[in-house]
Structure formats: C-alpha cells, structure tokens
Amino acid sequence: MLKPLTPLPDWCRRTAALSLALMAATSASPIFAESPSPPPGGTPPAAAPGQAKPNGNDKEKEKEKAKEPEKAADKEKETPRQVQSQHSVVINGTAVSYTATAGMMPLKDAEGKTTAEIFFMAYTKDGVADVTKRPVTFSFNGGPGSSSVWMHLGLLGPRRVKLKEDGSALPPPYQLVDNEYSLLDETDLVFIDPVGTGYSRATKLDEAKRFYGVKEDTASVAEFIRLYVTKNTRWASPKFLIGESYGTTRAAALSGELGSKHLMNLNGIMLVSTVLNFQTIWGGPGNDLPHVLYLPSFTATAWHHKKLSAELQKLPLTEVLKQAEAFAMGDYNHALMQGSALPPATRQAVLKQLASFTGLTVEYLDRADLRPSLQRFGVELLRDKDLQIGRFDSRYTGHVRDRLTETTEGDPSADAVFSAYASTFNHYIRTELKFEEDKPYEILTGSVQPWNWGAENDFVNVSETLAKSMTKNPFLKVHVSQGYTDLATPYFAAKYTFTHLDVAPDIAKNLVMDEYQSGHMMYLNLPDLVKQKADLAKFIRGASGAQP
Question: What does the alpha-carbon distance between residue 313 and residue 332 come to, in Å, rounded to a whole number?
Fold first, then answer.
C-alpha cells in the first residue's frame, strides 16, 4: 500500500485496516519469605541463642534479596515473546512441512535499552539439512504505515484470503484457504511489520517519531534483518528482499543500508508495484511528468471498461498499450512541454488522440487543459453509470453518492478486500499461529505521520541508492512486478525509472520486469497469481544459484 506525501482526500484516509499479531507472555516471580518487622516504635526482636546478630552486610543482602523479584520481572521482559507451531501445505502437488514463528524482536540502543519491538512472522521449511543452500526472503508492504499482511495473505505465505477468481469480494464471513502458489517451496519467508504497524511499537510513544521517516525506517528494518539473520544463523544463506508499493522504496534503501552498514550483500530484490522516484507519480504545478506516465494506465482502464473506440477495443491490451506509450512519450509529452505556446491546431490534434486513449471526451480534456487528474479521471470515465473506479486496481468499480461529484469519493478496490484481509488475519494469528495480543493490529495506519521524507524542495528518489548497490554488488539481481490497471504506482512510471537507472549495460542485465493484467496487488487476480508465482520462483532460483 502506498500513501502519497500530499494531503489525501477523506476516502483515502479511511482506507486503512488490517494486519498481524503478537505480544503476550506472562512473567512469574518467585515468592520470597519476608523477614519479621519490629512493631511500630518497638525494638527489633532479639537474636535466638547461638544466632549471630544482623550486621550492616546482612541488611544489604536483605535489600538485594528483596529486589530479586523485580530483577526477575525485568529479565522476563527482555525475553522476546515468540510462539512456534507446526504446519503443512501442498505446493505444486508436494507437501511442504514448515515451522511458523510469530513473535517480537526487540531493537536496542547503544546502552542496551529496548527502543522498540518489531513484530514478525517467519515460515521455515522443516527438514533442511543445509541452510546455506536454502534462501530466506524478508517481506514488507508499504504505506508508509502498512503492515505486511497484503503479500503475506495474498501472494507469498502458506495461507491466502479466499476471493473470486478475478479478485472480487465475497460476502462475509471471510475465509482463508491453503495457498498452493506460496513461495515457501522456494524460500523461507519472514514478514516484517515496521515500527508503528501491525503489533510493532516504539517503547516510548513520545519517541516513536525516531522511526517515522525514510532513513529512520530503513535503519530500524535493517537492524531487524541483521538480528534475525544473526540469531537464526542465516548469514551464509542466499538472502532476498521483497517489497510492495512504498515497500519498494524501502527495499531499494535497504540495499544501501545493509550493504554499507552491515556489509550484507543480497542475492536479489523483488519489487512489486514500484515507486523509487516520487517525481514520477506526484504531480503538481511545474511537474507534467506524471501525466505522461499515467496515460497508459488510463488507457488500460478504459480498455477494461470498454470505453475505447471500436478499433482499439478489438485489439489485445498489450497492442493498445504500445500505441498509448508511443503517444505518451511522443506527441503528448511534446504538447505538455510547450505549455501555453502550444499552437491551437496542434492542441486540437493532441486532444483527439488523448480522447481516443482515455475514453474521455475532447471537451472534457480541453477544460482539463490536457491534464486530467487521477481523481477526476476516476469518476469521469464511468459517469454515465454513476460509478467510480478503484485507485489500487481500476478494474474495481463502486457507486458514487453524489452524482455530480467532480472527484472520486473512495476507492472501491480497497473497499472490496480490506475487511477480508483484516478479518482473516486477526482470526488466523490467534487460532492457527497461536499468538495472542489484545491491542489492535494496525493494518494500514496514519499514526506514523508526519513522515520524515528528508527531501525538502525535492522528490524522494532512491533509484540512485539501488543503482549504487547493483554496481557495488554485480551479483545483485532485481525483479520488478507491475500491473496494468494500477493507478497508485503506474507501470509506465516504473519503466521510466528503470530506463533512467544509471548503471552499466552489463549491470542492467540483472534487471527483470514482468507485467500483469490487473492492478497494485496483481496477485488478487488468480491468473496473475499463477503467473507471478512462476516468475518469482524462476527469479529466486536464478539469483540464488539453484538449479531449475
């Protein structure tokens, strides 16, 4: 999930909900007999015959003994709360037995004091004789403010949310089913909830902001990965990251942090619905680039809803998108660059082409000055049906309450699945993973705001960090998954980012891009899930040196 830097409309602030679980352990304190105390104003009882009278040292010992229960409680608090359980799932016709661990990982400062606890869930295949041959993948979603639940229960984990084949919602109560497309047959999986999400919290609420920023978040997640790899003796294992949405930003930043601070080189990074350079998706006065890069996704959306001309509608989507991309980078980009100097005749020609690739009218696009915003496009495309389209996945539609509204009122693609993920996760964590915690699991929260982007008068851009990591570690492979109907992180923006990645041609060969028919969470669409499992499995085997 991705949250924009600029203020969001009300509906987007409401689309949160869901996530993980952890935090319950009891501490038992030994019972100590109390020494008899003198009556008020009285004198201490006399020592028994043959018993030495108490001296100063004895009193100090008694004080230390009295503190033992408190010390025992403190020691108990320092013990990470973790629960393990045994399970099995059938993947590709083969039963895979695995151990699930749900628990907390304390982060400590230089003085050894706990500053935060990060909640995680790990799935490790049983019976692995040599872990140096077994990959381990660290997974997280985005936001900022999102838990790891989406890829956990949608793509990677051994259980997934049951939806219709195209990802449409089913009525509650919601269910989990075994995920026969899990990546657990290829790699161990560790799902991380950054501080402020899921059950992860800073020790002191007034110091939580120390974790809420691009650099701050990167440092804390890198420290978690270091601790997990160390405590579980996985330094010699092939290591991978997979992030979605802002999680791709985090993954690129982590490639630098892990490599420079911890000298931990990675085998591969998997980016799902990518945004590394925020200039490609955040528009505004003076930045026309997002209009160019969003256009092909507008075309894919209009094609899906059958709003294009008959000539374009009859073509396969991939063929239509080739034409849209060429127009976007050519005539459309040239027209926007000219601004008010655009000749009237050229403007009319571009308006006609723009209308043909968006499904909107020439008149509307003219009033929008050739620059239809995402929120306006989202409600204008299906205005004749009083419907709005989804931001995370524009295949989804929902009714508008105000039939004259100029912008979207919500996100039907979020409304369709958020509750399903929240409900199933909260049930799963207690009943199957046996982890109990009463505080809310923050699926997608705004409590991490304000986020420290560290980019005043500039756009966040971590593509340079990734380029440096790929250059310093020429064995690092990168896989990119993009959905055609994703209006949160459009696929053409990712193409633009990677064609502008400043790496040598030999290094660029380490990059693989795969595209899918649906949106931000392409794995909700079953055909895309099947394809994505095959694509990622092939990538992991290649990057870890395993034989196919």
Answer: 21
